[in-house]
Amino acid sequence: MLKTLLERRNFFKLVCGAGNEDPESVKRLVYTYAKAGCKVFDLSAEEEILAAAKEAQELSGMEDLCYCVSVGIKGDPHINKAQIDYDKCIKCGSCYKLCPNDAISEYIKVCESRCIGCGTCAKHCPKGAISMVEKDADVKSVLPYMVSNGVEILELHVTGQDKSDLDYKWSVINECNPKFASICIDRENLSNKGVILRIKEMLSQREPYTTIIQADGIPMSGSDDTYKTTLQAAAMAEIIQNAKLPIYLTVSGGTNSKTAELCSLCGIEYNGIAIGSWARKIVKPYLSRPDFWTNKLIQEEAVKVAKDLIEKSRYQH
């Protein structure tokens, strides 16, 4: 089924957040987007998160869902967690108000399980009291478990300069032999040429068309629904498309409801779109309600919003 979605260019992936380790949040996201027609879900590589997603799938009554779990190399923002220095903190509340994932409480405490490493809090702290600290995963133990429990895509975020960590984690992914491996890559630390060279080196260990390249414009930047926000995602996808590699191409990083249209205008023949920040934001008013599981009207409204985004993300010929 996954290969069919990619070949038909009908691949839509809901990114729950590589750092989102909150089971209830993931459960509500998967339930809503599964009911809306999404077939592929990107999860944190945690056993309880995979269990929450499968519970949501059962509740939704939807079949043939595919799961992807993501890990990052050292230096990648997706494995970061916010940490507050209370000697500097003045409790102004800017971090609490701006956090897109409700990972900071009104008491200015970080809920690590909800922090996705976006760095919004650190960027806007007037006293520089917030730093981002890496929380690395033990890929050697967790990834084999994921594949043995039905995960079909193992994804590696390769932003960062630690080549030895990249090589190690990529080797573990290949040893696990998932149906598809995925490389999520952006240009923050690499030139356009450097991006293609890194991808080609990694692809040398893979059979043709068993790898998804996720062209990441600006990671975790989909805070609004404008063409400008998704511009870098389209640009990154064009660079990879022009290399004519034996891969499936998906677009991410600032993706929103304008991404498919912009890619079509730019002649980008992508196989799918992955949306995280924007997809989570538009359903947040419904999913954050305490009566979500008992209020069918709220569930229906959330599904309607999610379905509209999925429809707008379909490949445009």
Write up what this structure looks like.
It is a single chain. The protein has 317 residues and is α/β, with parallel strands linked by helices. The chain folds into two domains: 2-74 and 136-312, Aldolase class I (TIM Barrel, Alpha-Beta Barrel); 78-134, Alpha-Beta Plaits (2-Layer Sandwich), CATH 3.30.70. Helices cover 41% and strands 17% of the residues. The protein has twelve helices and ten strands. It has helices spanning 2-7, 23-35, 47-60, 94-98, 120-124, 139-148, 163-176, 192-203, 227-242, 259-265, 277-287, 296-312, and strands at residues 11-15, 40-44, 66-72, 80-84, 130-134, 153-157, 180-185, 211-216, 248-252, 272-275. The strands form two sheets. The protein has an eight-stranded parallel barrel, surrounded by seven helices. Strand 7, helix 8 and strand 8 form a beta-alpha-beta unit. The radius of gyration is 19 Å and the shape is globular. The mean pLDDT is 92.
Features of the shown structure:
12 helices; 2 domains; alpha/beta; Alpha-Beta Plaits; 17% strand; single chain; 317 residues; TIM Barrel; 8-stranded parallel beta barrel; globular; two-stranded antiparallel sheet
What shape does the CA trace take? Answer: globular
Q: Give the name of the CATH architecture of the largest domain.
A: Alpha-Beta Barrel
Q: Compute the CA-based radius of gyration.
A: 19 Å
Tell me the distance between the termini: 22 Å
Largest sheet: 8 strands, parallel, barrel
User: What order do the helices and strands follow?
Assistant: HEHEHEEHHEHEHEHEHEHEHH
The number of distinct helices, counting runs of at least 4 residues, comes to: 12
What structural class do helix, strand and pairing data support?
alpha/beta
Identify the CATH class of the largest domain: Alpha Beta
Counting DSSP E segments of at least 2 residues, the number of strands comes to 10
What is the CATH T-level topology of the largest domain?
Answer: TIM Barrel
**Mean pLDDT, as a whole number?**
92
Helix content range: 40-55%
Low-confidence stretches: none
CATH evolutionary superfamily of the largest domain? Aldolase class I
